[in-house]
Design goal:
The chain is mainly beta. It has two domains: 28-164, Immunoglobulin-like; 170-353. Helices cover 7% and strands 51% of the residues. It is built from one helix and 25 strands. The protein has one helix at 3-27, and strands spanning 31-44, 49-51, 60-75, 80-89, 94-104, 113-119, 131-140, 148-156, 163-165, 177-188, 190-192, 201-211, 221-234, 240-241, 247-255, 258-259, 266-267, 269-280, 293-301, 310-316, 319-320, 323-325, 328-331, 334-337, 352-353. The strands form nine sheets. Strands 13, 14, 15, 19 and 20 form a five-stranded antiparallel sheet that branches. Strands 5-4-7-8 form a four-stranded antiparallel sheet, with no helix packed on it. β13 (221-234) and β14 form a beta hairpin. The longest helix is centred in the first third of the chain and has 25 residues, at 3-27. It is elongated. The relative contact order is 0.13.
C-alpha cells in the first residue's frame, strides 16, 4: 500500500473520530426507544364570564388530555415535552399563544393525563364572536441548537362566547357595557310619503345588554346612550338608498350590577331582548314592484362621556319587499292625498329574501 493511500486512510479515520466526538454535541443523541404523545381531548372548562377585576376569574380555563406511549425507532430528540396553546377567534385568527412545560415523560400511560391551563386574554374579547383554543404537543430537540419538534397533530376545543369585563377599578370613568346582537327585524313594511306618522319604515335592532360596574359601592343605575348607524340597501342592485337620516341615538337606563339575593355575589346586570326601533325614511320613491331591500346596522354605545362610541359590530336584516306609497290619489282628474291607513298593507306577491 503506497503512502498516498495510507495518508487518505488516516485522514478518514481522523474525521470519523472527530464526528463521533462532536456530532452528538451538535446534533443530539439519536434514540432508538422514545416516548410518543397524542392529544385526546381539549375542552374549555371554566366560566364564560371573565372579570379582569377578579384574579380567580380573569382567564379562560382549558383542560387537555394527553396519552403517552413508548415507541421503537430512531428520533433526533428528547422525551421532554411542551404544550403550546393558541387562542383563536371564529375567523381562525390567532390572537395569542403560550407554551406550557410538561417535562420529561419516559413511561407510557394507562389512561390519559389531564393537564389544566389558564389563558388570560391580552385584549378584550368581543361578546359577538366565538373563540376556541388549539393545543399542539412538542418535544424538545437536542444538540447545541435544540428546537421544538411537533408531535402528532394539533387539536381544537369547541368554540365559546365570552362575556369579558376588563375594568379593574370599581370607580373608573367607563360604563362597562356589552351589547350582544340577536337580530335586525323588520317591524313596519310600508310607508306613506305624505304622512306625518307613517312616513317611515321601521326595523328593530334586538339584543342583550350587560353591565358590570361600580362593584365596590352600592348599586345604582345610569343612562347609557346607544348609537345605531344604518343604511337602507337595494337588495337587487346593492346600491345604498338615500335616507333622511342614517343614525338613531337612544338612551337606556342600566343598573351597574346584579346582586344575587341569597348569596350576595355580584353578577352583570342584564337587559335581555331589548329592541331599539329605528325609523327609516327614504328620500326617493322606492320601486315596490321590482325591488326588495334590507337594512345594514352598526350598533355602538357611549362607553365614556366625551369619547367616541364603542362599536359592537354590524348586522343586517333579511331582504324584503317594501310598500312605499306616494300618498297621491287621482279621482278622474281630481288630485288629492291620503296620510294614513288603519290596517297593515301587505304585498300580494314577493316576500322575504335571504342574503
Amino acid at each position: 500500500m503506497n503512502d498516498l493511500v495510507m495518508c487518505r486512510l488516516r485522514l478518514l479515520s481522523f474525521f470519523c473520530l472527530l464526528f463521533s466526538i462532536t456530532g452528538s454535541a451538535l446534533f443530539g443523541q439519536i434514540q432508538n426507544t422514545y416516548t410518543y404523545g397524542t392529544i385526546e381531548r381539549v375542552d374549555l372548562s371554566g366560566n364564560t364570564a371573565l372579570y379582569a377585576s377578579r384574579s380567580y376569574a380573569d382567564s379562560i380555563e382549558v383542560e387537555v388530555d394527553v396519552s403517552f406511549s413508548r415507541q421503537s425507532g430512531f428520533i433526533l430528540g428528547t422525551n421532554v415535552f411542551t404544550m403550546r396553546l393558541q387562542l383563536l377567534d371564529d375567523e381562525g385568527i390567532v390572537l395569542q399563544s403560550q407554551d406550557e412545560s410538561i417535562g420529561e415523560r419516559t413511561t407510557a400511560t394507562v389512561t390519559p393525563v389531564t393537564y389544566n391551563y389558564s389563558i388570560e386574554p391580552e385584549a378584550q374579547l368581543d361578546v359577538n364572536k366565538r373563540y376556541f383554543v388549539r393545543a399542539q404537543l412538542y418535544r424538545m430537540g437536542t444538540g447545541a441548537f435544540p428546537r421544538l419538534q411537533t408531535v402528532n397533530s394539533p387539536m381544537d376545543s369547541s368554540s365559546s362566547q365570552f362575556f369579558h369585563f376588563v375594568n379593574t377599578q370599581s370607580s373608573d370613568a367607563a360604563f362597562n357595557v356589552l351589547f350582544e346582537y340577536d337580530e335586525v327585524e323588520w317591524q313596519r313594511l310600508f310607508a306613506i310619503r305624505t304622512s306625518e306618522t307613517q312616513q317611515t319604515f321601521q326595523v328593530d335592532v334586538i339584543g342583550n345588554i350587560y353591565r358590570y360596574d361600580g362593584y365596590s359601592a352600592s348599586n345604582g343605575s345610569d343612562d347609557v346612550e346607544f348609537v345605531l348607524s344604518y343604511e337602507l340597501v337595494n337588495g337587487v342592485t346593492d346600491e345604498v338608498v338615500a335616507t333622511a337620516s342614517n343614525e338613531s341615538r337612544q338612551t337606556i337606563s342600566l343598573a351597574r350590577y346584579y346582586a344575587h339575593y341569597g348569596s350576595g355575589l355580584l353578577y352583570p346586570s342584564t337587559v335581555p331582548n331589548h329592541a331599539f326601533t329605528i325609523d327609516i325614511e327614504p328620500l326617493e320613491q322606492l320601486d315596490s314592484v321590482n325591488d326588495h331591500f334590507y337594512v345594514r346596522v352598526t350598533a355602538a354605545h357611549i362607553e365614556e362621556v366625551g369619547e367616541d362610541p364603542v362599536i359592537a359590530g354590524q348586522r343586517q336584516s333579511m331582504s324584503h319587499r317594501l310598500l312605499h306609497f306616494s300618498g297621491d290619489l287621482d279621482f278622474n282628474g281630481l288630485a288629492t292625498t291620503f296620510t294614513e291607513v288603519s290596517n297593515t298593507p301587505t304585498a300580494s306577491v314577493g316576500g322575504l329574501y335571504k342574503r
